[in-house]
Amino acid sequence: MDKQDKLKRYTQQNLRICQQKQLDILTEIDRICTRQGIEYWLDGGSLLGAVRHRGFIPWDDDIDIAMTLEDFKKFEAIAPQELPAHLFLQNRRTDAGVREPITKIRDLNSLYIERADTFEADYGKGIFVDIFPFVDYPNLPSAWIRHITKGISKSYSVLHRMHYYSFRSFAEFFWFGGKYCLLSLLWRFVGFWGKKTRCSDIPVLNGRGVSFDKKAIKPLKKILFEGREFPCPCDVHSYLTDLYGDYMTVPPVDKREFHAVFILPELL
């Protein structure tokens, strides 16, 4: 067994402990949101896991939740005072080393390394829950939304990853910088058109290019996840179909991916 296989096996052995810690983080988030009147819902693989497995997808190693941008701003302002000492709200505004636009609630007494992480980079790397702010989307054909938002997300990702001084880095800067500016302006322009009956992640986070009918989300319901009830969209079937298509089919073993390459549930 080579070093990579040993590392993967070690990570898999720690998976359930990681999931339990993430569930504890989610419970703290739920406590704060309930107390402050903030609405959120299970999103992505966490919602899929709740429907298909009544908890985590067995090989999933993160939790995703979503909330409107308005509720997100309220949560971001309140959470640092409400969270226990070992939990930290992390994004580009609270942790200078962070490059990605995602907000996470991190457990500081753990270590969680993703493929895009490095041990040397100076930012928190604990076990986490992802929070995705949702915004209204213009009434455009789904293909248009997919093309524009995927382009914005891809360009943003390239522009904010770690660069080295080289011809390629300069070429990428001008190409993707121009693409990002053009598509962002186009997105703002089309945003003035008609009613906005759909919503999704802010475009820089919408790498899938999907959007959801707002009527499929609210009023929120409750769903069982790992023996506890958490908020979910009111039309889970519509939501998951937009996101995954045939969401009840379990993928083959070779298609089941971990986000983490290394998990240490407890730091000494």
Overview of the molecule:
By secondary structure, the protein is of the alpha+beta class. It folds into 2 domains: 1-133 and 211-262, 2-Layer Sandwich (Beta Polymerase, domain 2); 140-191. It contains 7 helices and 11 strands. Strands 1, 2, 3, 4, 6, 7 and 8 form a 7-stranded mixed sheet that branches. The chain has a two-stranded antiparallel ribbon with strand order 5-11. Strands 9-10 form a two-stranded antiparallel ribbon. A hairpin with a 2-residue loop joins strand 9 and strand 10 (228-232). Helix 2 packs across helix 4 and helix 5 (142-160) packs antiparallel against helix 6. The protein is globular, with a radius of gyration of 19 Å. The model has no long low-confidence stretch (mean pLDDT 86).
Mean pLDDT: 86
Strand proportion, as a percent range, falls in 15-25%
Molecular shape: globular
Low-confidence stretches: none
H/E element sequence: HHEHEHEEEEHHEEEEHE
Q: C-alpha Rg, in Å?
A: 19 Å
The percent of residues in helical segments reads 40-55%
Per DSSP, the total helix count is 7
Q: Could you tell me how far the N terminus lies from the C terminus, measured between alpha carbons in angstroms?
A: 28 Å
CATH level 1 name of the largest domain: Alpha Beta
For the record, the CATH architecture of the largest domain stands as 2-Layer Sandwich
Total of domains: 2
CATH topology of the largest domain: Beta Polymerase, domain 2
Q: Give the helix/strand class.
A: alpha+beta
Largest sheet geometry? 7 strands, mixed
Number of DSSP strand runs:
11
